[in-house]
Design a protein that fits this description.
The structure is a homodimer. By secondary structure, the first copy, chain A, is of the alpha+beta class. Chain A folds into 2 domains: 328 residues, Aminopeptidase (3-Layer(aba) Sandwich), CATH 3.40.630.10; 126 residues, Alpha-Beta Plaits (2-Layer Sandwich). Chain A has 15 helices and 16 strands. In chain A, the strands form 3 sheets. In chain A, strands 1, 2, 3, 6, 7, 8, 13, 14 and 15 form a 9-stranded mixed β-sheet that branches. In chain A, a hairpin with a 2-residue loop joins strand 4 and strand 5. In chain A, helix 2 packs antiparallel against helix 5, helix 7 packs across helix 8 and helix 11 packs across helix 13. Chains A and B meet through strand 9, helix 7, strand 10 and strand 11 of A and strand 9, helix 7, strand 10 and strand 11 of B.
Chain lengths: 462, 462
């Protein structure tokens, strides 16, 4: 049996354990500030896989001096980062596998058909906040490593497995990885791309718009100016900016994307009394930044566009909308679509699924921009979840995709990092022998590796 | 000197004490739940005026069974009502003087040029939340009673001075007065009418609209439905209802009012993450109810109008806007413009100010509707404040108007309740003698009442 077939068979035989692992992860409500239990679970898995595990709480006092640091908080007590390093045999290319464990809040509970952290499996899908974004992807990576170990495959290059916090609010977890010195020849992040490959990713920034009105008694509301009514003009105006900015996007990787770099207004709040004219409304949102655009350029676009508001309504001349940049920012990133890692992932994807690989530019920011730009580690994004459900009620992941992604990642690691020759060392156990044989299938032509040792696998996937 | 002139002179001489009293009241931030200190001050004043004072905390358990009870709360611990009864000599008409001490929140602090509870006096105006709505009116009433007492005027009819809580959130304070049995031949509320006289007053009700969207990741926001964008349609739609309802208003008392019965959307809130498409927005507001309209009719208008939303956007067919009636309601009220009390106030107003009286329908609800409808006590509204600043930043009152209103109210009490003949009792002191003479000026023709006793007055206005 080819090693590719063995990896597939390994996934089939470990399906239940893989699902159980995802369930355990999803059942931990690892929203911002509550990541510790999820990270301990990840660290435990990496430890079981005999990786060198590093678990630490990022030092906010150091991070906040970094120009790329953005987070609503500067204390990360109880929110550790985790790294597991699988040292290669030498002579191969290294790779960072990066995934975040933080999840966005569950939103309107009434729209969830069961508990948001249920981990319930129905019709081949596992439900729960974070299933797609991106605990399913994290499990794919763990399964890939575990399958390689289970099959005794030893890689030449290092694999640096990063389980990070804070991706959903600005990337401070991955920044802490970079500050600590982690880098590699390339990186892969299995964010929910729905199995598409993203060589380019948009960045994004959070903004806050403070819209002013003038209070009055609601019964004589014509004596005041409603900040709610004015905010309607502002929302419409900002949506026009989205149109203008997207009209300038011609990158074929965005083909078929109705809004390549969206501006999303995510929160609104204002007024404090039903019978009073509201004097302030605050809007918060994110602006997408094109892969080759700078954050500064996008900021300038917004600033200049808001200045046009006064041409639409004199009120804004007297009371201009206040613009604040706050909280999260994701740096855009761009990797040459001809990059070797992209070719490998594409081919392995097609090999595993018999479907053509789809290359696109990402519709959202990830930590990949930081890796590409700051750590000099070209990063691509490819993962099994789907943004059709990420950040939604009833978020779920197709379990088949999670296992397919695991196969693609395992095969990609072998081709990118290289597979070490079996060493005829004394005392090597049966599994190592099998692995050496299995690993050699691709490199040297197929030999039947025989039955794998169940006991060895179970140790790893306990 | 005529008694009218003496009342004016009394006001001139007690101007500083009147201003000080209003300052003391305004400096108490008597928002909902925090009325106690203001009520103790009011009770103290009424006690100094030798009225029979009744101070009690309304029993929410009793009130909440009443069909006209509306409040966000059912416990009134620390929020007492106050009544002071000035028993008449008999044979005259009784009157309720009603004012509320609760004030709306101060709103955006940045828009206040000094502290919202400063009580600062500048250019003849006293500033602070509640100055116009309606602590200035309360002081006008107190000054009127105090001037009559200071001048030794004894009325035939009873004056029932009601200092209530909860006017700004549904009238539970005045309802508690009615439930306790207080009623009279007529009532006057010095809410901020800017010295106009309101025989009719609109009612109003609070409503809540829950607008649904469908959450999604902001980077693929086209996969979701923004509750913020949908709420813009809802706000515009509700403003159209306001137009439709106001087009049907032809009462000449509303002449010159740009929006007789406004619909005000006072608060908005929704979404919980800048990078997520918001799935819920909640709007809260008040709908004006015409003086002769029922609350039920206005409710039906709103219900039917919201049903039309689905003709504007299919989304609302799938996810109709949820309408809730909550919290405050003010019952509309209508007193025949030919009512005797209206004639008296009008004439006294012109007598004091040399300006023609202006009759209008009120642009907002007051507790007067409850008095008119439930207590069989026809209520008119006339007061010195202005809604141009009520519920606004930098709320203030023209102090001249407060003293003019006090004169009008004093003269109105004399004419409505009747002035008792001086009784030649033994032991009556000089002030009583003066008062009897002063009171007789109007009834029997002028006699010079001579110099008033300052010591007596100071006792009363300590």
């Amino acid at each position: 049996m080819s090693l590719k077939a063995q990896i597939h068979e390994w996934m089939v035989r470990h399906r239940e354990e893989g699902i159980q692992l995802l369930q355990n992860l999803v059942r931990i409500a690892s929203t911002q500030g509550n990541e510790q239990d999820a990270q301990l679970l990840m660290a435990g898995k990496l430890f079981e896989l005999n990786l060198d595990v590093d678990l630490w709480e990022p030092d906010g006092a150091v991070l906040e001096k970094h120009p790329y640091f953005y987070s609503p908080r500067t204390r990360f007590t109880g929110s550790p980062n985790v790294v597991g390093v699988m040292k290669g045999e030498g002579g191969g290319r290294s790779i960072i596998l990066n995934g975040h464990v933080d999840v966005v809040p569950e939103g309107d509970l009434l729209q969830w058909r069961s508990q948001p952290y249920s981990g319930e499996v129905l019709d081949g899908k596992l439900y729960g906040r974070g299933a797609s974004d991106m605990k399913g992807g994290n499990v794919s990576m763990l399964l890939a490593l575990e399958a390689l170990q289970g099959l005794g495959v030893r890689l030449k290059g290092d694999v640096i497995f990063q389980s990070v916090i804070e991706e959903e609010s600005g990337g401070a977890g991955t920044l802490a990885m970079i500050v600590k010195g982690y880098k590699a020849d390339a990186a892969l992040i299995p964010e929910p791309t729905n199995m598409r490959i993203f060589p380019k990713q948009q960045g994004s920034m959070w903004f806050r718009l403070v819209v002013k009105g003038r209070s009055a008694h609601g019964g004589t509301r014509y004596e005041g100016v409603s900040a709610i009514e004015k905010s309607m003009l502002v929302v419409a105006h900002v949506l026009e900016l989205e149109q203008v900015r997207n009209a300038g996007i011609s990158d074929p990787l965005f083909e078929g994307n109705p809004i390549p770099i969206p501006i999303n207004i995510g929160t609104i709040g204002g007024g404090n009394w039903p019978s009073s004219v509201p004097d302030t409304v605050t809007l918060e949102g994110r602006i997408g930044v094109a892969p080759e655009e700078s954050l500064e350029h996008a900021k300038e676009d917004m600033v200049r566009w808001l200045e046009l508001l006064e041409t639409k309504d004199d009120w804004f001349r007297e009371s201009p909308v206040e613009l604040q940049w706050f909280g999260a920012r994701w740096v855009p990133g761009s990797v040459d679509p001809a990059h070797e890692l992209i070719r490998i992932v594409s081919e392995q994807y097609t090999g595993v699924t018999s479907r053509p690989a789809v290359l696109e530019a990402s519709p959202w920011g990830t930590d990949g921009g930081l890796l590409t730009v700051l750590a000099d580690t070209p990063c691509i994004v490819f993962g099994p979840g789907s943004t059709a459900t990420a950040h939604h009620p009833n978020e779920h992941i197709e379990l088949d995709a999670m296992f397919e992604a695991a196969e693609v990642i395992a095969l990609t690691l072998m081709e990118w990092c290289g597979v070490a020759e079996p060493v005829e060392a004394e005392g090597k156990d049966a599994a190592t022998a099998e692995a050496a044989e299995a690993g050699s299938n691709q490199e040297q032509g197929g030999q039947d590796a025989g039955e794998l040792s169940p006991s060895n696998e179970h140790d790893a996937l306990a």
